[in-house]
Amino acid sequence: MQTTDLGETFETHRRYLTAVAYRMLGSHADAEDAVQEAWLRVARATPEVDDLRAWLTRVVSRICLDQLRSRSRRRENPLDLLPEAERAPDEADPVVRAESADRVGYALMLVLEQLTPDERLAYVLHDVFGLSFDEVAPIVDRTTAAARKLASRARDRVRGAAPGDPQQSATREQRRAVVDAFLAAARAGDFAGLLAVLHPDVEFRVDQGSDGIRIVRGAESVASNAAAYHRYAAGFDFEIVELATGFAVVAISDGVPESLLLFTSEGDRIVAMETRLIL
Predict the structure, then answer these.
(1) Beta bridge partners of 237
(2) Which of 82, 91, 113, 268 gives 20 to 30 Å between its CA and that of 16?
(3) Which of 40-54, 77-91, 112-126 has the highest mean pLDDT?
(4) Residue-wise burial string across 15-24, b where 16 or more C-beta atoms lie within 10 A, e elsewhere
């Protein structure tokens, strides 16, 4: 295939490849870099393959997997929304559905951040983009059965604790009830209601962007901060997601996620909270 023809063919797959990379990496900028690296490899290799899209998917996936493994010790902000202009009206297209879901899918990206790189790749390629486990296996250097197991573990973590575990289910319900009570009290400016769900020694870490982290300690101080928030809460929608240590709440204004509030609870009290700005 001539380089010009190859380039034109590659461009027809760029949007799909970017969607795959975005689901892997959680950053649109990183996804574009991964796709561009894939193009450089393709241009050098000039492959003669029957299914170029499948071949490119494997290349991009390997690039993403290497990035995920190399950054596993760094904390990333797993959100860089795909621009509105890039969404096509064809909702039957799985790529379009994935992109549309990203508008309110920050919760899913948070959960994906908890997965190992191999689990994340297996889950995204199979459950989101429909690749078979026979196709996924060589990308993660596993057998087909092992790739299926990776996706299964990832799926369980995305869905939360196993539904057949009553104790886990009760704990989830209790944690969710605490978060719901906190949000209701914060929205109402209910100081007493906030004190009721905060541990006396609760610590609240507040992300102030370039000004660094401000730490607020003690139930009364944290409740005062949260009670003041009710003046702003009316303008936000909230998306709640379960994490391994508790729940997270995404504050969304006009469809755009702006901040993240992480909760850690013990019993019926919140013992730690942390805000992160979504930049």
Answers:
(1) 252
(2) 113
(3) 112-126
(4) bbbbbbbbbb
